[in-house]
Design a protein that fits this description.
elongated, 13 strands, 2 helices, 10-stranded antiparallel barrel, about 290 residues, about 10% helix
Amino acid sequence: MQNYNRVLTGCFVCLFLFQIYSTVQSQTLESQPVPVQHKSSLDNKPWTVSRLSVRLGAFWAINSTDIGIGIDGRKHTSFNFENVLDMNRNTYSGLFNFNARLGKHNRIDFSYYNILRSSKATLEKEIQFGEHDYPVNSSVSAFLNTNVFRLSYGYSFYSNKKIEFGALLGFHVMLFNTGLRLNANTLSLSYKDNVQFTAPLPDIGIWGTYAFAKHWALSTELSYFYMKYKIFDGRILNAALSVQYKISKHWEIDLGYTDFDVRVGLDRKRLSGNFEWNYNGPFLTAVYKFGH
């Protein structure tokens, strides 16, 4: 189901970008009006564009998490958090975004969100995690906290009153804090493993906006990156498609769907293992725009 959702999201994004490309091609064949002098570098842009904007909202995520961690060269077990530890797949989280336009072609985006989860379970198989072994039929508590920061630069290749599209270069910094604790009747039998690590990953991609009506627009983004170097192996995929509604000059609402997939492999002396996390689901944001 995760792969199906990812493919479906990618198809929507590709179809939308193809529609933008087709519209641009048809417009270039038409006669163009005599150029006029604009007061602002953002005048010949879709209504979605402003000098500065702040987005606040929430999203509903369906998660799938596979992890395996060993400390100081110990063997580790790769397992699925949701299946083995009964961790809830469905989560809600807030999100924040700030966008700034620097001239006619350049834009800067900063985003942040976090997902905090915890669970209790009785193990149906033995798990080797961190520095300990967790036996079959043992009662355990687990948590997984993820903080995601993203900074990206975008360049607009083409724009008019209805359409804008361009390329982007982004950088994700993901802070993972996860742990497993053996619950026992006596303190002497209780132990735990807490692990923290940071995964910085760049990504490159494309984005586009199509304002098809006075108060309605569609926006999309697709980015990807893969890197393997010595002790590090990482991959990231990010796709989003949203519909935007203009309430007033300064306010709009965005409703969309996003798919995010990250995989990190580590092979260090102190810490080794793998981490793969995918989520997809809808989001809703309120946008305040100012400046022109």
